[in-house]
């Protein structure tokens, strides 16, 4: 959590963090949306931790009892935003619209770290490069936070 402070948003203004998992053809969970909405209602930021699939067996391997693993996959900010916007389109509650302010962070603490602020519609177009990625959905921002957000703006 402290590393995420590099985005310039005050740590005491974060609500509960959420995890966003990869959608599949038959599984499109959206239960975390309720936490985003609750944080937003309180004016708090939401740290979104993005799915990591490492040493995951395939469904076929599980069914056959074999230890065959799929290649590692790391969710990108782009995928997370696409999924959030799909959920918003289905629910229509306004917790994460295309105009919602957010910050995408990649490889925090590394020499190649990347921090980009923008709307969800803007961030979905950004190439954040190699993993690991996280996404921050901004709540109400103090003027100091707004200055930091503008510094990282596209």
UniProtKB/TrEMBL annotation:
Please list the GO biological process terms of this entry: protein histidyl modification to diphthamide
InterPro entries attached to this UniProt entry: 4pyrrol_Methylase_sf, 4pyrrole_Mease_sub2, Dphthn_synthase
Name this polypeptide is given: Diphthine synthase
| Single GO term (MF) | methyltransferase activity
- Where is the secretion signal located? none
């Amino acid at each position: 959590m402290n590393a995420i402070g590099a985005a310039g948003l005050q740590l005491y203004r974060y609500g509960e963090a959420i995890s966003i998992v990869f959608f599949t053809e038959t599984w499109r969970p959206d239960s975390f949306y309720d936490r985003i909405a609750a944080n937003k209602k309180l004016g708090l930021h939401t740290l979104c931790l993005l799915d990591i699939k490492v040493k995951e067996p395939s469904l076929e391997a599980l069914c056959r009892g074999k230890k065959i693993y799929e290649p590692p996959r790391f969710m990108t900010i782009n995928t997370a935003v696409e999924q959030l916007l799909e959920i918003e389109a289905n629910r229509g509650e306004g917790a994460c619209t295309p105009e919602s302010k957010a910050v995408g962070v990649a490889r925090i603490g590394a020499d190649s770290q990347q921090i980009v602020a923008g709307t969800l519609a803007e961030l979905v177009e950004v190439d954040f490069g190699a993993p690991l990625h996280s996404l921050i959905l901004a709540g109400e921002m103090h003027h100091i936070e707004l200055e930091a957000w503008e510094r990282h703006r596209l």
